[in-house]
Amino acid sequence: MDRIVPKQGAPTSFADLTAQLQPAVVNIATKQRVQVSQNPFQGTPFADLFGNQGGGTPATREAQSLGSGFIVSADGYVVTNNHVITADGQGKVEEISVTTADGTEYPATLVGSDADSDLAVLKISGKNDFPFVHFGDSKHARVGDWVIAIGNPFGLGGTVTSGIVSAVYRATGGGAYDRFIQTDASINRGNSGGPLFDMQGNVIGINNAIFSPSGGSVGIGFAIPADTAEPIVQKLISGEEILRGYLGVQINPVSEDFADALGIPANRGEFIQRVEKGEPADKAGLQAGDVVLKVNGKDITPDQTLSFIVANIPPGTRVPLEFIRNGKRETVQLVVGRRPSAEQLASQRFDPSNNNDQQDSLAPAGSGLVERALGIQALALTPQISRQLGLTEGTSGVVVTAVDPNSDAAQKGLQRGTVIYQANYRDIASPKDLEAAVSAVKSEGREAILLRLQPRGGPTISAPIRLRNDN
Q1: Which residue has the higher pLDDT, 457 or 70?
Q2: Global pTM?
Q3: Of 200, 263, 334, 456, which one's alpha carbon is 20 to 30 angstroms from that of 433?
């Protein structure tokens, strides 16, 4: 075997490259208004005993968040993560500011954001000769390539770290955009939205997340690949609507167990668990039990999932889809549909018997008021969910999808699949209706709300649910 000699010019220092790139990297700060409890014992065992010592109305305070970003044009377009400039349901972002490497602070306006890919574009003004950087071609990134990250970890602006590409296109969850470049360059809280550069000074990734049992860097960081991010960024800048492809199937990776049961290779293709009626897969004749191997000429693998491939095909495109049914390979032509909203997808995927979504800290929907005040998460009833629950089609209400086990709602018997029809004698048809009812109760200074509800498989009852003081 020939000896591999490092290329001449392998970096002995990153100083020259850093000096060239750092002026285009910015710190991003937001100011937001959040509601907090006035209970001085909040977070202690005495919270419920002493109640809200400050009165019945929660206080509003100003909160700040910090992140990173980078300038991509001389006229001041800035790219960052969506989660850097949103309040995550806990409040309202009132102000966004961008600080450049020379310490100049600029007010920023939000040009556009995309929660699915966790990307956002800001605009700063003041001059037309901002230093900027370019996106590179992340498809050519290789494991072992040198990279550097520049950002604002823990508010320490202008921090530079180096490392290598640890893995390319690491799939972390199977979703349409759960595909990242993994690096061991130190990335910490505040690095989100900052650039990951190759040795040519091109942005090959946008730092997005870390894996860390301790909360600090342990050498496992993730960046959104440039070839995923750049087309979305350009659409946000131009004001185009971001449309994503959709098949209408629920899928599982072909694990070793699936492969042994079906007599096919593991880690190739994805198994269809369910086909949504009337959606593109159904119209093309796909069935539960089919194994999709290839779409539009691209193999389905753990690194290139069906969700990712299809999401990046424009709706209305006609593509070939190859699959296995009863041991035989078949191909159909399929017209890709338009991916529904996150709320619609959650409705489609709701399974009343699956309690895996139960969690102590509920992800907020809307403003997050219902989650914080009641400790539940809910979806509007759809015809599909009504059928699953054995309800008459057209029934109006919301269905509980998760319950905090420490909430009064849990103590009163609410669980996944419970349907709520009324709040304080008013009919509700959506989570927004329930949120409005909770808001009204809070404004009146009451500490509980009366819900008319039906536990799964039980009779309709009324139950008073005590509001939590930690909202």
Answers
A1: 70
A2: 0.67
A3: 456
